[in-house]
Amino acid sequence: MSEPRGILDSPEEKSRGRGASVSLSDLEKSYAGVAAVAGVSLDIRSGEFLTLLGPSGSGKTTTLMMIAGFQAPTSGDITIDGASVVATPPYRRNIGMVFQNYALFPHLTVAENIGFPLKQRGVSKQERTRLVGEALELVHLPGYGGRYPDQLSGGQQQRVALARAIVFKPRLLLMDEPLGALDKQLRENLQLEMRRLHAELSITFILVTHDQDEALTMSDRIAVMNDGSVAQVGRPEDLYDRPCNRFVAGFIGESNFLPAAVRGVESDVVVAECDGVLMRAVSSVRPASGTKVTLATRPERLRFADRPVESGLGVNRMSVTVSEAVFAGERCRYLLKTEGGTSMVLKEASSAAVRRRAVGERVEIAWSVADTIVV
Asked: pLDDT-based confidence at 314, cuts 50/70/90?
């Protein structure tokens, strides 16, 4: 009989990849004729960390529950490693699951909680002890096996929930707002811990969250959901720098939206007029002259142009008035008004060497054309 394997794979096993691939095909879920999920198609790669991100009611949790098997789709298909699981009950899908409320058994010790899925699978007591110890090491809680859940902090309880979800070596781990109940600093620490855990385990993680910073920090790719559909899928930096529409630009990070009218296209760059000023923007399409469009740019990409800055086709410039100035520690946040009354936000790194702007001050701002997109 071969030696039982541990939770972590050997380098050779990691190189082959032990995460499950997941495919959603035209997935729909309706309640009383109202679509909560409306035709979602999405391929999740083996070993990937994918986040379903969206506001409340966007369909992200319903999608996750259908992957887990806790809800049945109205139509469409779900495959795991190429095999349909729509008719497979949850306990046979061999999926790890982590919830926001931890879902620990209060009458069981930490070790008993973590070992519960192993006991359900008929794993021997000796083997359970070994695997539970490995899981506690992985989540940085060695020596905590004899404690009870009410003797742990919220962050420690969530680590136990994670250990319980991975101890039986699933190929897929689903997480529904797992850090939502934690305070900001602890949540940020655990985000990095979960990234580390994903790298060590080499399994597929699917996370549901409405927290954009959490999604940007943790994910290989993000699927932004809205009204039951996937609005855009991509790497965090791609979604942040090149959102496909106004919803994505506004939901991931903060954006300035400038109404404009197209005046032409030059070398694949759209030339548009906003409040009497000609601007240039990147666009995936070539809108016709006269078309009304919205230009988007991030507040941290704007800068005050006290001195002459590089000019030419690579920079947009505009005169504005400071209408509000807020010191926020590491950053200063300015609300600006254009001559036409359009509001803009500029975020500037705070420093004793940087002059702060006064309300009512007339200033000129500049930013790169590459940071201006048509949405």
From this structure: confident
